[in-house]
Amino acid sequence: MTKIILTRHGHVEGIDPKRFRGRTDLTLTERGRAEAKAVAARIAEAWKPVKVYTSPMERCVATGREIALASSAASEVMAALNDLDYGQWRWRRDDEVRAGWPDLFAAWHASPHLVRFPGGESLQDLVARAAEALRLVRERHPPASETVVLVGHDSVNRALLLQLLDQPLSAYWRLAQSPCAITEIDLAGDGILVQRVNETYHLRGIG
Predict the structure, then answer these.
(1) Residue 6 and which of 60, 93, 149, 151 are 20 to 30 A apart at CA?
(2) Which segments of the chain does DSSP mark as H helices, in order?
(3) Where are the domains of the chain?
(4) From the centroid of its chain, how far is CA 131?
(5) Alpha carbon distance 33, 90 (integer Å)
(6) Consecutive sets of 10 residues in the chain, 207 residues long: mean pLDDT of each?
(7) How far is Cα 81 from Cα 172, in angstroms, rounded to an integer?
């Protein structure tokens, strides 16, 4: 059995107040660094992964570095885990996007599976990348009682979970992926078992 521990990067600017961060390469805030250390300690204590794969974005690389250090594991960037490309919406606030693209902004919240960001990606593009990340993990870590960590973003983590749970893209907004939360997934042959989703108790007292 291969176990995947899925987590999101630590806190960065643009989470609150919210901006469309996407491919904006942000560094962890002080809070984000504390969250990364906390999730690293939790993972090292409970699972001792053999490999950590991260999005190319610095916020994920830095979070993955803490996890790899705590677990004495190797860390590697995986392009398929990159965040959504929001195109012209990147780093804009909700009110700016609503003013510039009112119909598309409304559609993003009502029917996200039907939206392509101006000059950017769609959820279909994201799901294809998430599927590639899952394929690579299966290929490199066949069922052999190994644990690997994937450090991604809110969006790509949701896309991964929708596939693993056989849910439609229209259910995108029904899943939460908080910074440095833990989602545990077991891959056993052709079977998939999601053990926990968005666990955050290891972050109590931070923020």
Answers:
(1) 93
(2) 30-46, 58-71, 94-100, 102-110, 123-140, 154-164
(3) 2-85+122-203
(4) 13
(5) 24
(6) 95 96 98 98 96 98 98 97 98 98 98 98 96 92 88 97 94 97 90 94 92
(7) 17
